[in-house]
Specification:
Elements lengths: L1 H38 L10 H39 L3 H24 L2 H20 L2 E3 L14 E6 L10 E6 L2 E3 L2 E4 L2 E5 L1
Parallel strand pairs: 2-6
Antiparallel strand pairs: 1-4, 3-6, 4-5
Main location: cytoplasm
Organism: Christiangramia lutea
Keywords: Chaperone, Cytoplasm, Stress response
Length: 197
């Protein structure tokens, strides 16, 4: 048995040597190809070597990736801002529909003050204040516009111009016909005013 084992060992060693030699030859061939590729310079036509071309392609892909990433970040930022804005003003339709009710309450209070019925006035004031506070808690805010304030076409809606009762009111607000309201930072109804000329 020892002769067979020795013979197998010799055959294994021969096979091992052949495999190592084949691997060494393959490595040498790859090294020679790499050296010849690196030694190549630009051709007469201005074309790049394969390595330079790959580097340029890699740089282009990196640039595309960075631009795409930046664009995606901007998109995320923009959509999150729009989503926050939507949540803030989601109830704008309801608030706009409630504004005529607030106007009616204001007119009713003015008429009840003229009538002199204190108990009725007190009851309506309680309901009016409750409605006003509820809408205020949801973000509705009345715009404060007074007689004598400067007229600003960006935030006021002029209905008409009348001769100013005094020189101080020329170009200023003489009367507020309908109050304006804001929902958060957005004006949902501009105050309707009369200006002096």
């Amino acid at each position: 048995m020892s002769r067979k084992e020795d013979k197998l060992k010799d055959e294994n060693n021969d096979l091992k040597d052949q495999v190592e030699e084949a691997i060494d030859n393959a490595i040498d061939e790859v090294d020679e190809n790499d050296e010849s590729t690196q030694k190549q310079t630009s051709t007469k036509d201005g074309e790049f070597t394969e390595e330079e071309q790959l580097k340029e392609d890699l740089q282009k892909e990196k640039d595309k990736f960075l631009r795409l990433f930046a664009e995606f970040e901007n998109y995320k930022r923009r959509t999150s801002k729009e989503r926050l804005e939507l949540f803030k003003t989601a109830n704008q339709e309801v608030m706009t529909a409630m504004l005529p009710v607030m106007d009616d309450f204001d007119r009713a209070l003015n008429e009840l003050k003229k009538s002199g019925d204190e108990n009725l006035l007190k009851g309506i004031e309680l309901i009016h204040n409750k409605l006003k506070e509820t809408l205020k808690a949801k973000g509705l805010e009345r715009m404060e516009v007074e007689q004598g304030s400067d007229f600003d076409s960006e935030i006021h809606e002029a209905i008409t111009q009348v001769p100013a009762p005094s020189d101080e009111l020329k170009g200023k607000i003489v009367d507020v016909v309908e109050p304006g309201y804001k929902l958060g930072e957005r004006i949902i109804r501009f105050p309707k005013v009369v200006t002096g000329k």
